Amino acid sequence: MDLVGGCRAFVSVSETGSFTAGAALARIPQPVASRRIAALERHFGERLFDRSTRRARLTPFGRDVLPAARRLVQLAEAMEHDAKRARQRPVRVAVPATCGVRELAGLAAEARALEIHLEFRAAGPGERAELVRTSEVRAALTAVPAEEAVWSVPLGVAGAALGPSRVVHLETLRAGRSAGPRRCVRIQPEDDVPHVRDRVLRVRDAVGLSPAQVAVADSLTAAAAEVYATEDLLLCSTAQAEELGLPWRPIGELDVARGYEVAAALAEDADRLRTTLREAVGRCLGAGR
């Protein structure tokens, strides 16, 4: 039987002295309240109310068990409250600093419609997995090689002085190939990971660029400032190039991409991000652009 439901009806009727008023207090129809109390009486093998009068008067047995019934109802209500709070407890997710506000807000709104409450913490690629390990976040979008990734974001170069060519060959940046100062490729912190940075450095060496012509910037802002002020190029995604108002081209000698996976303390959190919210997460990362 529904012991909690029966006790809730029992307590409500005892407090009002009426089956009708007690049912209203318990927010159930009066016949339902009567059935639940009758079931409770059968369960205990004793009458809870004296039905010989117009008011619902407690029997001696009813008075004796009422305190325990109240405790059970209060405990059930507390448990329901705690369960609701647990469902609404935010899932903190470490995300790349490259994720835009608009896209993150869209992800949060889509998750909320599924009763998943997300909060975001922007962090660098080396920090995000550590935040999961130290329980500062429940999940993180971690940087992995593209071939191991759930989401893949192709990279190319953007710059204010790109010509009409549909592809940029890094060997054209070699000293003597063009007049003026040596042009550099700026790598932003999000791409300062071996599976991206080292591949660019190998191409740098293969085409004869100087070491200084491929440099890791302290921040995306610093890298973008150099690109705006000079003819340097920024290694970035198409989404970032659009946000910065810069033309974008793929790299002729290199097919390179960011890759992202989910690290999470709970498998359920990881599955939600990988499957239920996969497309919205991909938009935040710039995947599929």
Automatic annotation (TrEMBL):
GO terms for molecular function: DNA-binding transcription factor activity; transcription cis-regulatory region binding. Residues 1-59 form the HTH lysR-type domain. The keyword Acetylation does not apply. Keywords: DNA-binding, Transcription, Transcription regulation. PROSITE patterns: HTH_LYSR. It comes from the Bacteria. SUPFAM superfamilies: Winged helix' DNA-binding domain (SSF46785). Belongs to the LysR transcriptional regulatory family. PANTHER family: HTH-TYPE TRANSCRIPTIONAL REGULATOR (PTHR30126), HTH-TYPE TRANSCRIPTIONAL REGULATOR GLTR (PTHR30126:SF40). This is LysR family transcriptional regulator. The lineage of its organism: Bacteria, Bacillati, Actinomycetota, Actinomycetes, Pseudonocardiales.
